[in-house]
Amino acid sequence: MSKPVIGFAGMSHLGLNSAVAAAELGFAVRCFDADPMTVAGLRHGRTTVVEPGLSALIERNSARLAFTAVASELADCDVVYIAADVPTDELGVSDLSSLRLLADRVTGQLSANAVFVVLSQVPPGFTRALGRPAATTYYQVETLIFGRAIERSLHPERVIVGCADPAVPIPRNLAEFLGAFGCPILPMRYESAEMAKIAINMCLVSSISSANTLSELCEKIGADWSEIVPALRLDQRIGQHAYLTPGLGLAGGNLERDLATFLQLADRHGSDAGVARAWIVNSRHRRDWVLSKLHELVVFNNPQAILAVLGLAYKADTASTKNSPALALLAALSPFRVQVYDPVVTPLSEFHPWLIPAPSALDACSGADAVTVMTPWAEFRTLKPRSLAERMRGRTVIDPFGVLDARECREARLEHLRLGAAPW
């Protein structure tokens, strides 16, 4: 018996990575996007989505991947996923209008037996409200991580499936596809699955907020958060994979989206949301850590300071700048000359009125009074503090994620600051 044909509608980050993973598992995949330019680029192996290994897998699975801008070409699919990224506003609130339009456009092309699955991130109640036949309509929780999307697509810990009735067996074609991932499948009602996605991200935000709060205190009392983390990971109640690395607040959009959805639901139904609001306040506070250090150590006494910003993406291995701390920093540094470099993101004048793009990280640091490492790109880990010191005019290096070697920075007589530790 031949494998089911799988369709994905929406070739943004979620849809493209999920489709390529399905092809890598040996399935024929139909990939629909309403933008002909996007489709034309993908047919020639070009994509604006940045993920390690993605381009290589597109090329390797070209015989299984069919890209189209014609929705009717999904008609022969046995399972079709709606997998477009859902845009959010500055508060993290989702705009679901384009997703509903895409769902309407696709469902009109499907055969009566085709299984329709919502993979996009949606609030509880969305899937049931589509009003589609219960026997062929499902929701599946996506758990991709920017920078690790291919890995997460191919090797999920579990698959969470929302159903009209979780007691009814999943249709054979969908079950065969999901079985190929070799992990537990957890059926539950639509609303439980949609809420499970929010619960996962709320727990992550809780860990991130705890790490940020505790690491800030470490900076002030002479402790080092990185020395404490191994002890926490050996505690079975916390674990090896807990989010314990301090950062510059929440970024990327997905965590912010689920916090916004939770707050809307909690307020609507009279549930306590105080802890979630505290996480948002903490996130905004930690986002400004670099800015406060710059004011304290550099620009307060030097209004003509030249600053270097290394990294614009909100995290390494992605081109996404959604809620990027680097862009927030640039906006706050508008009076100063800023030299910028990122391996993937093009520095734009709209980011900063006096922005100067640099061809390399070292070039960005030339003549700078302070260097800020805003994205922990692997490329930046190869920088030698002695080389930085030779290029810089000042001696301040603000390195939130500890990309540079602290000992080598001291030997180069650089003032090296990182999250969770007092400066040496």
- Tell me the strand percentage band: 5-15%
Low-pLDDT residue spans: none
Content-based structural category: alpha/beta
The CATH homologous superfamily of the largest domain corresponds to: NAD(P)-binding Rossmann-like Domain
Q: Tell me, briefly, the overall form.
A: globular
Portion in helices: 25-40%
The spatial strand order of the largest sheet comes to 3-2-1-4-5-6-7-8
The number of E-state strands comes to 14
Overall pLDDT, averaged?
95
Report the top-level CATH class of the largest domain: Alpha Beta
Main sheet makeup: 8 strands, mixed
Number of helices: 16
Characterise this structure.
Helix 1 (13-24) crosses helix 3 (54-60), helix 8 crosses helix 10 (254-269) and helix 8 packs across helix 11 (274-287). The radius of gyration is 23 Å and the shape is globular. It is an alpha/beta fold and 424 residues long. The strands form 2 sheets. An 8-stranded mixed sheet has the order 3-2-1-4-5-6-7-8, with helices on both faces. A 6-stranded parallel sheet has the order 11-10-9-12-13-14. It contains 16 helices and 14 strands.
